[in-house]
Design a protein that fits this description.
- This protein is an alpha/beta fold and about 120 residues long.
- Helices cover about 40% and strands about 20% of the residues.
- The chain has a five-stranded parallel β-sheet with strand order 2-1-3-4-5, sandwiched between helices.
- The longest helix has 13 residues.
- The chain starts with a strand and ends with a helix.
- The model has no long low-confidence stretch (mean pLDDT about 90).
Amino acid sequence: MKRILIVDDNSDILWVVETILKRHGFEILTTLRGEEVLAKTKKFLPQLILLDVFLSGVDGIEVCNTLKSTPETKDIPVIMFSAHTNFNDLKKFCKADDFVAKPFDSNELVKKINYH
Protein backbone atom coordinates (compact mmCIF):
# COMPACT_ATOMS: atom_id res chain seq x y z
CA MET A 1 0.00 0.00 0.00
CA LYS A 2 1.38 3.40 -0.98
CA ARG A 3 1.64 5.93 1.87
CA ILE A 4 0.80 9.53 0.99
CA LEU A 5 1.18 12.68 3.08
CA ILE A 6 -1.34 15.36 2.07
CA VAL A 7 -0.64 18.97 3.07
CA ASP A 8 -3.26 21.70 2.66
CA ASP A 9 -4.41 24.47 4.99
CA ASN A 10 -8.04 23.93 3.94
CA SER A 11 -9.55 21.12 6.01
CA ASP A 12 -12.38 20.58 3.48
CA ILE A 13 -9.89 19.94 0.68
CA LEU A 14 -7.88 17.62 2.94
CA TRP A 15 -11.02 15.62 3.70
CA VAL A 16 -12.04 15.33 0.03
CA VAL A 17 -8.57 14.31 -1.18
CA GLU A 18 -8.12 11.88 1.72
CA THR A 19 -11.50 10.28 0.98
CA ILE A 20 -10.72 9.90 -2.73
CA LEU A 21 -7.29 8.41 -2.14
CA LYS A 22 -8.42 6.02 0.60
CA ARG A 23 -11.00 4.63 -1.85
CA HIS A 24 -8.09 3.81 -4.15
CA GLY A 25 -6.31 1.90 -1.38
CA PHE A 26 -3.76 4.49 -0.29
CA GLU A 27 -2.68 4.93 3.34
CA ILE A 28 -3.08 8.62 4.15
CA LEU A 29 -1.72 11.08 6.69
CA THR A 30 -2.77 14.74 6.53
CA THR A 31 -1.59 18.01 7.99
CA LEU A 32 -2.80 21.59 7.78
CA ARG A 33 0.63 23.09 8.50
CA GLY A 34 3.78 23.28 6.41
CA GLU A 35 5.83 23.47 9.59
CA GLU A 36 4.87 19.87 10.42
CA VAL A 37 5.79 18.27 7.10
CA LEU A 38 9.42 17.34 7.76
CA ALA A 39 8.68 15.75 11.16
CA LYS A 40 5.62 13.89 9.83
CA THR A 41 7.60 12.73 6.81
CA LYS A 42 10.34 11.28 8.97
CA LYS A 43 7.79 9.39 11.12
CA PHE A 44 5.22 8.31 8.49
CA LEU A 45 7.75 7.64 5.69
CA PRO A 46 5.39 8.55 2.84
CA GLN A 47 6.13 7.32 -0.64
CA LEU A 48 4.66 10.53 -2.06
CA ILE A 49 3.74 13.98 -0.77
CA LEU A 50 0.79 15.95 -2.14
CA LEU A 51 1.52 19.57 -1.20
CA ASP A 52 -0.52 22.74 -1.62
CA VAL A 53 1.51 25.66 -3.00
CA PHE A 54 -0.06 28.33 -0.81
CA LEU A 55 -0.15 27.47 2.90
CA SER A 56 -0.51 29.79 5.86
CA GLY A 57 2.77 30.00 7.74
CA VAL A 58 5.51 28.18 5.85
CA ASP A 59 4.34 27.96 2.22
CA GLY A 60 4.46 24.90 0.00
CA ILE A 61 7.37 26.16 -2.10
CA GLU A 62 9.55 26.51 0.98
CA VAL A 63 8.43 23.08 2.23
CA CYS A 64 9.21 21.50 -1.15
CA ASN A 65 12.66 23.10 -1.24
CA THR A 66 13.39 21.83 2.28
CA LEU A 67 12.26 18.31 1.38
CA LYS A 68 14.31 18.26 -1.82
CA SER A 69 17.45 19.54 -0.05
CA THR A 70 17.25 17.10 2.87
CA PRO A 71 19.11 13.81 2.20
CA GLU A 72 16.47 11.62 3.89
CA THR A 73 13.56 13.12 1.92
CA LYS A 74 15.04 14.34 -1.38
CA ASP A 75 13.91 11.27 -3.34
CA ILE A 76 10.27 11.34 -2.20
CA PRO A 77 8.11 12.52 -5.12
CA VAL A 78 6.32 15.80 -4.41
CA ILE A 79 3.20 16.72 -6.35
CA MET A 80 2.22 20.34 -5.79
CA PHE A 81 -1.38 21.43 -6.23
CA SER A 82 -2.99 24.85 -6.40
CA ALA A 83 -5.62 26.91 -8.15
CA HIS A 84 -3.27 29.87 -8.51
CA THR A 85 -0.28 28.79 -10.57
CA ASN A 86 0.98 26.41 -13.23
CA PHE A 87 3.80 23.88 -13.23
CA ASN A 88 6.08 25.87 -15.55
CA ASP A 89 5.99 28.85 -13.19
CA LEU A 90 6.37 26.61 -10.17
CA LYS A 91 9.50 24.88 -11.55
CA LYS A 92 11.30 28.25 -11.34
CA PHE A 93 10.96 28.24 -7.56
CA CYS A 94 11.10 24.62 -6.41
CA LYS A 95 11.93 21.11 -7.58
CA ALA A 96 8.47 19.57 -7.38
CA ASP A 97 8.07 16.39 -9.40
CA ASP A 98 4.64 17.26 -10.76
CA PHE A 99 1.68 19.63 -10.47
CA VAL A 100 -2.10 19.25 -10.32
CA ALA A 101 -4.37 22.26 -10.81
CA LYS A 102 -7.34 22.81 -8.48
CA PRO A 103 -10.09 22.01 -9.02
CA PHE A 104 -8.72 18.66 -10.08
CA ASP A 105 -10.16 15.58 -11.68
CA SER A 106 -9.87 12.70 -9.20
CA ASN A 107 -8.89 10.25 -11.95
CA GLU A 108 -6.09 12.56 -13.12
CA LEU A 109 -4.86 12.91 -9.54
CA VAL A 110 -4.77 9.15 -8.97
CA LYS A 111 -3.08 8.61 -12.37
CA LYS A 112 -0.30 11.08 -11.46
CA ILE A 113 0.15 9.53 -8.03
CA ASN A 114 0.43 6.05 -9.53
CA TYR A 115 2.91 7.36 -12.11
CA HIS A 116 5.26 8.61 -9.41
